[in-house]
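Work Package 3 (structural annotation) set out to generate three-dimensional models for the target panel prioritized at the project kickoff. During this period the team completed the workflow that converts sequence records into discrete structure tokens, so that structures can be stored uniformly alongside our sequence database. As a representative example, we reproduce one entry of 214 residues exactly as it appears in the project archive.
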Amino acid sequence: MESNSPVSVFVPSTWKRLAARSLDSLFEMLMYAPFLKTLFLLIFDEGPLYMSLSVFLLILLLPAIYEGVSLWLMQATPGKWLLGLKVVPQANPDVELHWTQCVLRALVERASLFFSWAIFATAFFRYDRTHVADWVAETRVVQFVPRPQRAKLRWFLGLVLVFLCASEGLRGASGIIRAIDWQERRIDLRALYENEAGDGVRDLQIEIEGADED
């Protein structure tokens, strides 16, 4: 006789969420295999290197495609699935995700292009560890075994991470916009790469100069 009792779900531990994200990042790297030649030229060649905006936008959307299709097929990304996590509707974890929730969650997470990990850091403001993408798509990540202790609010940590990550994300997004040639509908990958490297060098120089002054 089958039981219709609801399945018990629990808030997953933070380390599981981070481990799942790391695994998904590894899997996503496989999707960039067709662009390895471009990456090789970018690193080891000093000549100009351009890419059409359509291809560049496709590359930016690959993680969203990975996330959306995975959620639609099994309500979890491969990283989450391997660690026993699942994405469920916020209101009722016993039903399947609607396709719109899969799309919304994936697209909002790609806003990390502009805000880096600030989007995910907002999870520290909630006991259920939902973040901005969950709020928009009305979803949450769960596990099926109890966690050792109840999740705690981490306001200070969350605020610091949101500020630092958002600042870094906006700076990176600004570099992308500056590297785009809107008339030719292409992006100068060389300029983008050198801007990112230059920012790192300038930050290092500022730190060194500050240490010298001390």
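The longest strand covers residues 85-89.
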